[in-house]
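Internal tracking record. Fields below are filled automatically when a chain is submitted to the structure queue. Please do not edit lines marked as system-generated. If the sequence contains nonstandard residues, flag them in the REMARKS field before resubmitting.
Queue: standard
Priority: normal
Entity type: single polypeptide chain
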Amino acid sequence: NAFTSIAEAISKASLNTQIYVAAGTYSENFNITQNMEIYGNGMNVNPNNEDWSANAKRADLTKETVLHNSTVGITAKGATNVVFNGFSFTGKSSLKETTSGSTIKGMDISYNCFYDNEQISANQGVIYITGTTVRSGRIAYNRVENSVAEAKPITFRNANNFVFHLFACCE
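SYSTEM-GENERATED OUTPUT FOLLOWS
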């Protein structure tokens, strides 16, 4: 099905839906509220490979799924499968959990690129997970580049059995 926004696709999705977002620039805020997988056009393309700029999906910026000045909230209390993969974040964009005191099992934030990011707030990184307990998930194969020095790559705590790979950071 085609939707006019990512938020609309999420609001109409049933449990365990996979959503594929076409290339383009999106400036909207939305929340992931249940078990679902959301994929951008850079799905499973590692932005840290040395041939990243030559990759067919990454060489032409019009082929990227860009979230500009957007906040992606994860409010999936008790979720067991939340995947966010293949997006580029620019401007004051971030991916953050917004449900304090809950547990998410199986969160996977991978293959995303955060570039030309401005500082969101003094305490918040481009990935911001602090109030939720996350069990058995991963944050991997992401890249941060050309972001202001004050923009922290990640703010994270309360994790158990979580695989965390450091970001590639470029000036």
